[in-house]
Amino acid sequence: MDHGVVLRRIVTGALATNTWVVHASDGSDAVLVDPGDEPERLAAAVQDLRIRAIVLTHAHWDHHLALPLLAQLVDAPVLAHRAAAEVWAHELQQARATGHWDAGTATADLLPSGRIQLDPDRELWTGRIDHELADGELVTAGELTLHVRHTPGHSPDGITLAMPGHLLTGDTLFPGGPGLTGWPLSDFPTIMTSVETLLTGYAPTTSIHPGHGPSTTIAAEAPSLPDWRRRGW
Ligand SMILES: [Zn+2]
Ligand SMILES: [Zn+2]
């Protein structure tokens, strides 16, 4: 039996968030990671699979706007790091104070489009986690096993999901460097520790699939680690 891993990427929402769907090549039990937005489209994209769990890499709004409806449509539990509730509470408080979601450096550009306005009629995640994930834990779906790594820094609840040959890094690690740490609750030294752990802990051929944009590999990114430390972001 070949238990290789198959990944699907669906891009949704104002910040073009990557939703990753993973299943074993010989099975249809799957894990859906980061339901960014457009819940009906996400549900349609996985209708041939059985979603056993919805996992959040972290609780920033752009990674789970689709969660309330999608969790109903696919009838799956929500898994996230314990600190996700605190991160989400902070996000909500900020959004209610300003009337829009914090899109980091893209906020000024996106505001006129209306796409990051807080919609009072939209059902949002309650912050309820069905199963809290801790570092070292295993998430399974059929023949698929994901290894949870706590990788804080972009946010305190940041996790990376590791499987043979692939890492789903959320907003922790991208082509060209670590995720942004200008956010509230972010910390640059902390994310660099997380990034170094990932870049030194997996084979060079391992693919890195981030929460936004294209994928990369350990081999492509690891040599830049000292440069990232020096530049400080
Ligand atoms: Zn984020
Ligand atoms: Zn993000």
TrEMBL record:
The keyword Hydrolase applies. Residues 16-212 form the Metallo-beta-lactamase domain. Keywords: Hydrolase. Gene3D superfamilies: Ribonuclease Z/Hydroxyacylglutathione hydrolase-like. GO terms for molecular function: hydrolase activity. Residues 208-218 have a biased composition (Polar residues). InterPro entries: MBL_Glyoxalase_II, Metallo-B-lactamas, RibonucZ/Hydroxyglut_hydro. SUPFAM superfamilies: Metallo-hydrolase/oxidoreductase. Pfam families: Lactamase_B (PF00753). Residues 208-233 are annotated as: Disordered. PANTHER family: HYDROXYACYLGLUTATHIONE HYDROLASE GLOC (PTHR46233), METALLO-BETA-LACTAMASE DOMAIN-CONTAINING PROTEIN (PTHR46233:SF4). This is Glyoxylase-like metal-dependent hydrolase (Beta-lactamase superfamily II). The lineage of its organism: Bacteria, Bacillati, Actinomycetota, Actinomycetes, Propionibacteriales.
